[in-house]
Amino acid sequence: MIDTRHLVTFEAAVRTGTFAGAARELGYTQPGVSQQIRALERNLNAALFTRSGRLLRLTDEGEALAAQVDALLAGLHATEERIAAVSRLRRGLVKVCAFPSANATLVPTAISRMRDEHLGIEIELSEAEPPESLEILRRGDCDVAVTFRYEQETQTESDEFMSILLLREPLLLLMPNSHPLARRHTVKLDELSEERWVAGCVRCRGEFVDACREAGFTPRIDITTDDNLAVQSYVVSGLGLAMMPRMVQAFLRHPGIRARPVLPERERSVMATVLRSNRRAPAVEHTIASLTRAAEQLSTQA
Question: Are the C-beta atoms of residues 101 and 228 closer than 8 Å to each other?
Answer without folding.
Answer: yes
